[in-house]
């Protein structure tokens, strides 16, 4: 007799979040193993060049957090 199978979709929200966190931590432990596509590298290079040429176009991390939190009432 086969044991009943459980899907990740049957997990509670907190269990799903824990799974995502565990997966993220596992990936973060070996960042060189995570593939980065050429288009992603090009986009990062474009953004870096833009911020170097126009430093005033960027936002401080504290400002980014403030805007996100105000948008989501937190």
What is the tally of helical segments?
3
Given helix and strand content, the structural type is mainly alpha
Q: Number of folding domains? A: 1
* Spatial extent as radius of gyration: 20 Å
Strand content of the residues, in percent?
Answer: under 5%
Topology order in helix (H) and strand (E) letters = HHH
Strand segment tally: 0
What is the mean predicted local confidence, pLDDT?
93
Q: Which regions contain 5 or more consecutive residues with pLDDT less than 50?
A: none
Q: What proportion of the residues is helical, as a percent range?
A: 55-70%
Distance separating the two termini: 50 Å
Main β-sheet, in a few words? none
Describe the global form.
Answer: flat
SSE diagram, text form:
Elements lengths: L12 H17 L8 H16 L7 H11 L3
Protein described:
- It is flat, with a radius of gyration of 20 Å.
- The longest helix has 17 residues, at 13-29.
- The chain has one domain (11-71).
- The model has no long low-confidence stretch (mean pLDDT 93).
- The chain has helices at 13-29, 38-53, 61-71.
- By secondary structure, it is mostly helical.
Gist?
The protein is an all-alpha fold and 74 residues long. It contains three helices and no strands.
Main features:
74 residues; 0% strand; single chain; 59% helix; mainly alpha
């Amino acid at each position: 007799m086969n044991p009943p199978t459980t899907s990740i979709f049957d997990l509670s929200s907190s269990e799903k979040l824990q799974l995502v966190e565990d997966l993220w931590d596992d990936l973060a432990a070996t960042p060189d193993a995570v593939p980065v596509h050429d288009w992603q590298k090009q986009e990062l290079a474009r953004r870096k060049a833009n911020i170097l040429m126009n430093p005033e176009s960027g936002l401080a991390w504290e400002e980014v957090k403030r805007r996100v939190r105000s948008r989501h009432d937190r």
